[in-house]
From TrEMBL:
Keyword check for Membrane: yes
Entry's transmembrane regions: 27-46, 66-85, 149-167, 179-200, 246-262, 274-297, 309-328, 340-361, 367-387
Any Pfam family the entry gives: NnrS
Organism: Sphingomonas caseinilyticus
Record key words, sorted: Membrane, Transmembrane, Transmembrane helix
UniProt cross-references to InterPro entries, sorted A to Z: NnrS
Protein name, per record: NnrS family protein
Length: 400
């Protein structure tokens, strides 16, 4: 009975527009598109050329939209694509997916124009999307009694962090910046959790195809200790605990994550950029943790350096690494990075490097930011050009 029902549901998927057949399709398209818009508007506002119509401070809006808007969309696309693999259930699609997509779009518009419609309305619009997403994902995992409920739990915490960020921005609660800091930390914890699964797994699969031995091992006590130390350090940073303790934990986390990355042997995948970029992306994590810790104990190290190593570096490059691979795999294409895809990886990495180094470069700071934004935004624009048709169109093999 269940098998027949699944066959019927798969057949009905073919009746849907391709963009509504799986969560990665609309959200992997809209997320990068919004990232480009946010970066362009932020640079124009920073240059004094425009005034943003949001109730939030321009910096607070930029920070919020990159975390909860852009990355929120990518997380939604990832979860709604990964959960069917975890549970064996069919993906959230059709009207349910369309409703979630429209809720995300409404939240972005409401926050941008919150100066007119009110900050509370904008907060409620975003909360509706994030809490609905967390609930929908939790339902799928709970029905299947799958072990990945903690990952969904992080999504729920992300929704709470977004609401707190709104309340702080609107002056309803203290201005300790706990909202965006917590959201930032939660996304990095997701990277440590999910990256720790997919990077050694994809690396091992590729090495096996090449006939190589000495494969990356499964997660061990060391990995759990590295994840725990990272979560504790980021938690102390988010809630602004005692500075010396926070810095010590961030330094320890940086060392542990660097060792963890080295154990996966990423240098052996240099001939396949689709795998190598996962290791390059993860390398930004220990670099960013180190810079963040240094900014606490050394006034000569800008706090923005660590934040952008983790945000523009780890988060953005990991997002592109996952989106390119998932789009190819789930639309029936060969898992291989072409020249255009390699350029995407080069652009996002170069943009992150320039943004992190901007405070120390012998050039105008604003010019460095604009150049970094152009490189970084160019990576996402090229992604839309090359992968947009794959996301919005049907699979070449005709499968749902």
């Amino acid at each position: 009975m269940n098998a027949n029902a699944n066959v019927d549901r798969r057949a009905k998927l073919l009746e849907l527009p391709p963009v509504l057949r799986a969560g990665f399709r609309p959200f992997f398209f809209l997320g990068p598109l919004w990232a480009i818009v946010v970066v362009c508007l932020w640079i124009e506002a920073l240059s004094g050329n425009i005034t943003l119509p949001t109730a939030l401070d321009p910096l607070a809006w930029h920070r919020h939209e990159m975390l909860f808007g852009f990355l929120g969309a990518v997380i939604a696309g990832f979860l709604m694509t990964a959960i069917p693999n975890w549970t064996g259930r069919l993906p959230i699609a059709g009207r349910r997916l369309a409703a979630l997509t429209l809720m995300w779009i409404a939240a972005r518009a409401a926050i941008l124009f919150s100066g007119s419609i009110g900050g509370v309305t904008a907060m409620l619009a975003e909360a509706a999307f994030l809490f609905t997403l967390a609930g929908a994902c939790a339902r799928e995992v709970l029905i299947a009694r799958n072990r990945n409920l903690p990952v969904v739990g992080v999504t729920l915490l992300l929704a709470i962090a977004a609401v707190v960020d709104h309340l702080e921005g609107l002056g309803f609660v203290g201005t300790d910046q706990i909202g965006w800091r917590s959201g930032f930390a939660l996304i990095l914890i997701l990277i440590t959790l999910i990256g720790g699964r997919i990077i050694p797994s994809f690396t091992a699969n590729w090495l096996i195809k090449q006939g190589q031995g000495s494969l990356p091992g499964q997660a061990s006590t060391f990995d759990h200790f590295a994840i725990g130390t990272t979560a504790l350090g980021l938690g102390c940073w988010a809630f602004q605990a005692e500075p010396s303790l926070t810095a010590a934990l961030l330094f320890a986390a940086a060392v542990l994550q660097a060792i963890r990355l080295a154990r996966w042997g990423g240098w052996r995948t240099a001939s396949e950029p689709l795998v190598l970029i996962l290791h390059v992306s993860y390398a930004w994590l220990p670099i960013g943790l180190l810079l963040l810790g240094l900014s606490i104990v050394d006034m000569d190290v800008s706090g923005t350096a660590g934040l952008h190593a983790l945000g523009a570096g780890a988060m953005a490059s990991m997002v592109l690494a996952v989106m390119t691979r998932a789009t190819l795999g789930h639309t029936g294409r060969e898992l291989h990075a072409g020249k255009g895809t390699v350029i995407i990886y080069v652009l996002v990495t170069a943009g992150a490097m320039l943004r992190v180094a901007a405070p120390w470069l012998p050039m105008d700071y604003l010019l460095a930011i604009k150049l970094a934004g152009a490189l970084w935004g160019g990576a996402f624009l090229l992604f839309l050009v090359l992968f947009g048709p794959k996301l919005l169109g049907p699979r070449p093999d005709g499968r749902p």
